[in-house]
């Protein structure tokens, strides 16, 4: 024990053993990852932007070993995760713009609120996820926002906005269905499963 205390005094902090239990980590879901992204690249992306993640994991299908297009980044401090969520949302990594949100527990995923999700189609090709989010933010708290892209990175002219509740989604549908966005009339409906 005394030897460990002496080592902790001379070792840089990032090399010191962490007694942080896994349950206390604060994790972000990272969606829309480039198919060439692996754990180390995901970790390094956050590190290059001034964050110190505890770990990063890109998810692969266990049966096929194919990239699933998403991963997770865990932080020791919730404030770091919140700052990353705020500052890196829709950042470009490779050919993709990532989508960040708080990682949900398995129970939260089962309680997915379909009524809080809207589908937006007939988007003008230049509309990005960040632009779509900015346009819909006035209706409430956006949990996630995505514009579908083809493999070549061009817009599929449709997207999704996930609000924190169904009332916000209904307000967005009522006000935005048939509205013009970037010079093109859009269709906004409840997401169908």
What does the model show?
The chain is of the alpha+beta class and 193 residues long. The chain has 2 domains: 24-109, RRM (RNA recognition motif) domain (Alpha-Beta Plaits); 112-190, RRM (RNA recognition motif) domain (Alpha-Beta Plaits). The chain contains 6 helices and 12 strands. The protein has helices at 2-10, 39-48, 78-88, 106-110, 129-136, 166-176, and strands at 26-31, 55-60, 67-75, 92-93, 96-97, 99-102, 117-121, 142-149, 155-163, 180-181, 184-185, 187-190. The strands form 4 sheets. A 4-stranded antiparallel beta sheet has the order 2-3-1-6, with helices on one face. It has a 4-stranded antiparallel beta sheet with strand order 8-9-7-12, with helices on one face. The chain has a two-stranded antiparallel ribbon with strand order 4-5. The longest helix has 11 residues, at 78-88. The protein is globular, with a radius of gyration of 20 Å. The relative contact order is 0.14.
Short précis:
This protein has 193 residues and is an alpha+beta fold.
The tally of helices reads 6
Number of separate strands: 12
CA-CA gap between termini: 56 Å
Order of neighbouring strands in the sheet with most strands:
2-3-1-6
What would the principal axes of the Cα set say about the shape? globular
Count of structural domains: 2
Beta content comes to 25-35%
CATH architecture descriptor name of the largest domain: 2-Layer Sandwich
